Amino acid sequence: MDTSNRSVPGAQAVARAARLLRLVTSTAGDGAALQDLARTADLSRSTTHRLLSALRAEGLVDRDEESGLWMPGPELFLMGSVAAARYDVTALARDIVRALAVKTEESAFLSVRRADETVCLLREEGSFPIRSFVLSEGVRFPLGVASAGLAILSFLPDHDVDAYLDRHPDLSERWGRTHARAPLRRRLAETKERGFAVNPGLIVNGSWGMGAAVFDRTGRPEWALSLTGVEFRFGPDRIADLGRTLMAHAHQLSSRIAGARR
User: Fold this and answer.
1) Which of 195, 206, 207, 216 is deepest in the core (most CB within 10 A)?
2) Strands of 140-142's sheet in order across
3) 153 and 118 in contact (C-beta within 8 Å)?
4) Residue range 145-174: mean pLDDT, rounded
5) By the 8 A CB rule, do 162 and 153 touch?
6) Where are the beta strands (DSSP E) in 154-206?
7) Which range marks the domain in which residue 244 is found?
8) Model confidence over 221-256: pLDDT tens digits?
9) Which residues pair with 141 in a beta bridge?
10) Which of 39, 62, 80 is the last residue of a domain?
11) What is the CATH number of the domain that holds 148?
């Protein structure tokens, strides 16, 4: 937790509840079991149940009575509808993501940076029949793990990258040795030089991803377009072609966002 909030009454409870909300909404509508939420949030089952019950009373989460799984509640939809007017770019991006899927025949995505994570906002299926299902709407990954987050992190200022790595020294414990500081920094440098990110099956063996950052008016990478597919579709020559296509679509979306927010 941010040390600046430790003296604020109720801050710990709010932070825990917010953590559970993020976990529930990252299930992409499938629902999450109490024990899984408790383990991931590093809370006891009783504390997790108490917080979820309070959130349910406010309509922020819901519980399926048959399966016992916890899901996003109706109040989140209403809140999201209001927030979308300021933060949502999916209306601007939908046709670009669809065009990317059509042109490449791979699954295409739009993700947004949210603090130290990326959240998938849009998914469009490509026509190639064999697909990767690592990513879907609502799924979150830490920056630097999936290709979208790797692309975004690569183009943040150096001091922001340093601060992020200091905040997350345990990335390699959860995501493997390739996410330790030294190899991650190498991939960040390669991504910045190349212009787009490549994830060679580092999350799920055989499932490759590529990403290109999308920038706001000030030049900060706040979104990313990405592609996923099976390994044999990502040979060296095709990676170069896909990279150029990704960057062209990302540039188009960056220009559209800048123009829409003037």
Assistant:
1) 207
2) 140-142, 117-124, 107-114, 221-230, 207-215, 197-199
3) no
4) 94
5) no
6) 197-199
7) 88-260
8) 999 999 999 999 999 999 999 999 999 999 999 999
9) 118
10) 80
11) 3.30.450.40
